[in-house]
């Protein structure tokens, strides 16, 4: 296995009318030997472009790509010793599963005995030995995707690249194969770079997550680090389902504490906006932002219904209820704000009901509305 380092990597495409499309903007990224790093972001953020540049399927406009300490910008794709699994399984339809998995080894001159050994070992790892005699058309979608993963595994390359390999599968099957990839990584200690727009996949698979937007890396960190300490407004809103709630307001000093207040007029004439006291540990860090507009972020699980008196209470109206089995998402409105609370399935509320809501301000995030950077 090997480490992968990207230095000031850029990719610019020329548009039809002579303009330029910046797919990547001077990104720096490091993937340690044996690490599984997930590139997470929406469509068009540059995730797949990054993968294709590493694989040698595209040439960078600027910057360097290093694999195992060697710059590979000018190295042909076939000589980079990386294996790529695509969103489409891309199996040869006229070859059996065994022949698809064995083809790359055959082209590299391996003996039939070594090919059979590697294919059988990999088939056992992925539980697809029974599929080996069959053509791709005789396999289910999940079986075809596992064979595609196996085709990459048999090569035993320095780096594995996964380009949204589960996007075309249904939800239960995605969960099964995601768990299988995670077990493979743990067993093989392989260096893997995995692309997805699904934050659940990223959180469950990754050693580290790199969140991307518009060709730039917004934050790199362990899954829970990115979740608990988002670097900016985009990361906070993109990582997490349901997404983080955002409330606009200003901070005012009241004695030794700071109070976050709604700055917009309430939808009901004469009704006061919400007032939330900042946690003591946040007060010192936010003193310089008194009387300035800020964005308060709070995840749905940190908003509770009819809680105790240890946090501020806000009266809100239930707008929508989404039962999700073990938990329920309750959509609420208070004054000018709409937000979501994630509560237990035993919570008994009705649409249109007024309820007391507690905000756990110890878990609150504050963002600068101009720069969108996290303040704490």
Per DSSP E runs of 2 or more residues, the count of β-strands stands at 20
How much of the sequence is in beta strands? 25-35%
The secondary-structure element order is EEEHEEEHHHEHEHEEHHEEEHEEEEEEE
Give the termini separation.
Answer: 38 Å
**What's the CATH C level of the largest domain?**
Alpha Beta
In the sheet with the most strands, the strands line up as 6-7-8-3-9-10
Fourth-tier CATH superfamily name of the largest domain:
P-loop containing nucleotide triphosphate hydrolases
Radius of gyration: 25 Å
What spatial form do the alpha-carbon principal axes imply? Answer: globular
User: Count of helices?
Assistant: 9
Could you estimate the helical fraction of the residues in percent?
10-25%
Identify the CATH architecture of the largest domain: 3-Layer(aba) Sandwich
Structural domains: how many = 2
Structural class by SSE content: alpha+beta
Concise description?
With 376 residues, the protein is of the alpha+beta class. The protein has 9 helices and 20 strands. The chain has helices spanning 47-55, 97-107, 112-126, 141-153, 171-188, 199-205, 223-228, 233-238, 280-286, and strands at residues 4-14, 20-31, 36-40, 62-67, 70-71, 82-85, 159-163, 192-196, 208-213, 216-221, 245-254, 257-262, 275-277, 293-298, 303-305, 312-323, 327-334, 337-344, 354-359, 365-367.
Describe what this molecule looks like in 3D.
It is a single chain. This protein is of the alpha+beta class and 376 residues long. The protein folds into two domains: 4-238, Rossmann fold (3-Layer(aba) Sandwich), CATH 3.40.50; 245-367, OB fold (Dihydrolipoamide Acetyltransferase, E2P). 24% of the residues lie in helices and 34% in strands. It contains nine helices and 20 strands. It has helices spanning 47-55, 97-107, 112-126, 141-153, 171-188, 199-205, 223-228, 233-238, 280-286; strands at residues 4-14, 20-31, 36-40, 62-67, 70-71, 82-85, 159-163, 192-196, 208-213, 216-221, 245-254, 257-262, 275-277, 293-298, 303-305, 312-323, 327-334, 337-344, 354-359, 365-367. The chain has a six-stranded mixed sheet with strand order 6-7-8-3-9-10, with helices on both faces. Strand 4 and strand 5 form a beta hairpin. The longest helix has 18 residues, at 171-188.
């Amino acid at each position: 296995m090997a480490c992968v380092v990207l230095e000031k990597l850029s990719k610019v495409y020329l548009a039809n009318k002579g303009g330029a499309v910046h797919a990547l903007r001077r990104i720096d990224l490091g993937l340690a030997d044996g690490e599984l790093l997930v590139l997470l972001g929406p469509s068009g953020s540059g995730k797949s472009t990054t993968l294709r540049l590493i694989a040698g399927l595209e040439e960078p406009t600027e910057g360097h790509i290093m694999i195992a300490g060697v710059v590979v910008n000018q190295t042909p794709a076939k000589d980079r010793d990386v294996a790529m699994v695509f969103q489409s399984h891309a199996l040869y339809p006229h070859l059996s599963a065994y022949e698809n998995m064995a083809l790359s080894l055959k082209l590299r001159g391996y003996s039939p005995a070594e090919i059979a050994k590697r294919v059988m070992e990999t088939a056992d790892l992925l539980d697809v030995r029974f599929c080996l005699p069959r053509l791709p058309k005789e396999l289910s979608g999940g079986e075809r995707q596992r064979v595609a993963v196996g085709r990459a595994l048999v090569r035993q390359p320095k780096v594995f690249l996964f380009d949204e390999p589960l996007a075309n599968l249904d939800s239960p099957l995605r969960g099964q194969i995601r768990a299988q990839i995670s077990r493979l990584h743990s067993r093989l200690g392989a260096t893997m770079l995995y692309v997805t727009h699904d934050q659940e996949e990223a959180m469950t698979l990754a050693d580290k997550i790199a969140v991307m937007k518009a060709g730039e890396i917004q934050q790199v960190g362990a899954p829970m680090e990115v979740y608990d300490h988002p670097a900016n407004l985009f990361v906070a809103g993109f990582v997490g389902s349901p997404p983080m709630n955002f409330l606009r307001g200003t901070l005012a000093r009241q004695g030794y504490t700071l109070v976050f207040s709604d700055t917009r007029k309430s939808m009901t004439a004469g009704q006061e906006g919400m007032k939330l006291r900042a946690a003591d540990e946040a007060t010192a860090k936010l003193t310089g932002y008194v009387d300035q507009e800020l964005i308060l972020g709070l995840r749905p699980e940190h908003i509770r219904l009819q809680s105790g008196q240890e946090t501020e209470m806000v009266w809100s109206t239930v707008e929508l209820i989404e039962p999700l089995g073990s938990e329920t998402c309750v959509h609420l409105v208070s004054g000018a704000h709409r937000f979501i609370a994630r509560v237990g399935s035993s919570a008994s509320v009705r649409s249109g009901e007024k309820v007391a809501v507690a905000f756990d301000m110890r878990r609150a995030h504050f963002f600068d509305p101009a720069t969108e950077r996290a303040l704490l």
